[in-house]
Amino acid sequence: MSKLITLTVTGGLLLSSVFNVFAVETNNISPVTLSVKTEAESVKKPHRKFYRCDVEQWVEQGIITKEQAEKWKEFNKKYEEQRKKELEKIRKMTKEERRVYFEKKKQQKKDYFDELVKEKIITQEQADKIKEQILQNHQNKEKENR
């Protein structure tokens, strides 16, 4: 009887240690997984934060003035508030209302930089320079990640 208990306890300990080692090993993230994750994140960033770019960078490069940067930041706050209100409105819609809303919105697509120009925060020339630099930065990051 004592041999059976000893055998059961030993077997249980052996199995639990094997499962424990396996669990520890599967929690490690391999460098390959990290690089894939980082690459995917880097591709998304420019698109998602296109309008949230670092305005101080453009001041340092002499593309815009500090005054324009302050106006831009204020515009960003208002823009974010509008987006939040729009999201709340969309969440309250039914599936059909959302479909109609997005169909209509596709036709009314706005360019963030056109809005900045329209509000006379920056000139069209400045907007074009900034767009060009953002595109170049994005292309450079894509090349680095390959």
TrEMBL record:
<dbReference type="InterPro" id="IPR001315">
    <property type="entry name" value="CARD"/>
</dbReference>
<protein>
    <recommendedName>
        <fullName>CARD domain-containing protein</fullName>
    </recommendedName>
</protein>
<keyword id="KW-0175">Coiled coil</keyword>
<feature type="coiled-coil region">
    <location>
        <begin position="69"/>
        <end position="97"/>
    </location>
</feature>
<feature type="domain" description="CARD">
    <location>
        <begin position="79"/>
        <end position="146"/>
    </location>
</feature>
<feature type="signal peptide">
    <location>
        <begin position="1"/>
        <end position="23"/>
    </location>
</feature>
<keyword id="KW-0732">Signal</keyword>
